[in-house]
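Notes to self after the Tuesday call (sharing in case useful).
The group wants a holo model before anyone commits to mutagenesis around the pocket. I volunteered. Ligand is 3-iodo-tyrosine. Logging inputs and output together so the record is complete.
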Amino acid sequence: MPGRDAADPGGAQGDVTPRFVPYAPAAGPRVADAEVLARAQAFRRQLETRRSVRHFSDAPVARAVIEELVRAAASAPSGAHKQPWTFVVVGDPALKRRIRAAAEHEERLSYGGRMSEEWLRDLAPLGTTWEKPFLEVAPWLVVLFKQEHALHPDGSTGKHYYVNESVGIAAGFFIAAVHAAGLVTLTHTPSPMGFLAELLGRPRNEKAFLLLPVGHPAPGAEVPDLRRKPLAEVSAVHE
Ligand code: IYR
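Result:
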């Protein structure tokens, strides 16, 4: 290996020579300070209009749109660039019906006693119940699975790193992409979620992470009247 010898402490890393390519935006002019602020503000304002919506229209959304949203999500950074996620996209009405039935079975048990009194009190302002009609009404359900480790075609396995962080970031990208496209979603976490891997025939290295229905909002859809914490409450600065 060029540039490596027995004294190199690189260890296993020494097996691969890193290859770098230009960061494309660095080839253009530096963005002026005022423009940086304007862009940050515009993006922030757009994100602030996002809400978790639970009332969906059954109006169709093209599969090509969902594929773009998944591509956007899959551009997220991940531990050692292992991209430890699988986005399973479900539009089949029969499968959506089965997912709804299984999710509502779990949710009925959760709302009926598995969740603590404090938890139920905390959820009260959201107006959620065990009933999840959106799982059938939304044209698409995107089930995001985390890959706890790699599972190669020959059956061998490999390590994945910071899986929850990586998949959480990808979920954030997905949610932002849905919003930017003018559609709505919510992060649904029927608990326990084991039924999803089973119904969707996922390999043993995958565990359901989030279920994200995607579609247009129902006409007149409402959301809870919530306030976001002000900047001073969510941040601390050491300048
Ligand atoms: N999984 C349930 C309960 C639920 C829990 C939390 I934390 C929420 O922020 C919202 C709902 C459900 O989806 O209804």
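Two things stood out.
Residues 149 and 160 are 5 Å apart (CA to CA).
Residues 107, 123, 126, 128, 188-191 surround 3-iodo-tyrosine (CB under 6 Å).
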